Amino acid sequence: MESSRRSRRPSASVLVDTAVFALGLAVLAGALLAWRGAGSDPALLTALVIALPVGWVLTRFPLMVTGINSGILVPFAPVLLFFLLTAHHARPATALLAWTLATLPAHLLDPREWTSRLFNGGSSVLAGLAATLVAVGLQPVDPVTPRQLLAVLAGAGTYYLLDAVLSAVSIAVEHRRRVSGELLQPGTLVGGALFLVVASLGYLSAAVDLSMPGWVTNLTVLPAAAVVVAARGWRTAQQRRAQQHELFQASVRMHTVTTDGELVTALEQHGSALLSRGRLRVLDRPPGTGEDGRPLPAGPRGAPRWLVAPASANRDAASFDTSVVEALALIAATAVHRVAQAEAAEAAALLDPLTGLGNRRAFTQRLAAAVAADAAVAVLFVDLDGFKAVNDTLGHAAGDELLVEVSRRLRGTVGAEAWPARLGGDEFAVLLPDRLPGVVEDTGDAVVTALREPFLLTAGPATIGASVGIAPAAPGDAAEALLARADAAMYAAKRAGGCRSVLAVDGV
């Protein structure tokens, strides 16, 4: 069960894949030593003449059973191993060495991520060693017997089981899932059954080679080639079906995301699953050398963005990846505009349209978040004194102009760390930090002083005052209770004659 994955690799996954490859190299070195120790069997060169081209083809075209991101690929390369083990019945070290030298380069030159290449190469060598030990331990003296076939099938079962376990460990570490869950996925047993059938072709070809004329042996290439071609077509069809499904899922998700951050995450996740190799990213730069990409609409701060993916060296894969990036860019463009409009509408729903301050909804949300975090804050509840008289004498337009000017003075008085809002009518509130004793009371007095100064309006001068209630947050406060205490303190300031601030104490 080979690995076919294209997601970002955590360091633990890279370590596992590299360790598997290192063990595979150790097996290769051991096979070389065993071959040297057996007298440097010259049959190795003859075996390599057949093994190199056949091994390359069989390694590059496995059979796809499930998925494309963590799917099961039934390898054909072990067919060659079991052919060599049967044909070179008395020289198993030569057979294993020839198979390893023929298939390992094909794994390492495969156009996948380098970690997948290392893992698949190392895993195949380790599984090949285990299969060789089991098959050789069970094989009879005469290779053209049912017992030899059983030995080959036992070796094939060992190969598949070890390869499946190693793949499950690697995928589980990469995606932080349980190894048992990867081993017990539905395609595992189907893949194992198919692998035993495929492995028997190796024995069949060797048996024909040992007992029949050479031209008959050559005929076995035809059914083997037919199986490889059919497997390649099946794999391509499975990949395209899975990729089409992934593209549909991406389109659906693009229509459900509500924030720009969710949009970027969805693009990178689905795009990476769709690409033939590498990972799709949303970057603030155009594609560079060895990359393909398409522009996206600007982000929340107006910065330009691009969908960027690694360029594939394979022409068919590159063409498909280009179409994937183009399709995602088109889908994303509509989603970006929709998300921007939704975020703008959400922001507008939290603003007072006249003054540009936050409205009551925005203030209560921010206040609730502050008290939930046990932040040291206080609320200033500000009600204007004499505002109705301005409306009655100078008109409602002057009243609106006055509210805008009040909001400007309020911003300038409470400081950058405070957050003022208009609750409605001539009522304002300020959420400000309460870190040092007496600071919030001084801020309340400063607001009263600032709003007592005359306003020069278009319709004429106007003088008002402000009654301010101050309520520092207490441990365990609820937002509504804190705002209600500040409101009550403001009314206490009104009853005392207005144009003053009152600190909420003793239940006031």
Automatic annotation (TrEMBL):
Membrane as UniProt keyword: yes
SUPFAM superfamilies registered for this protein in UniProt: Nucleotide cyclase (SSF55073)
Domain GGDEF residue range list: 375-507
NCBIfam families per the UniProt record, alphabetical: GGDEF
Name of the protein: Diguanylate cyclase (GGDEF)-like protein
Membrane spanning residue stretches: 12-36, 66-87, 118-138, 150-171, 183-203, 215-234
UniProtKB keywords: Membrane, Transmembrane, Transmembrane helix
Tree of life domain: Bacteria
A Pfam family it matches: GGDEF
First and last residue of the signal peptide: none
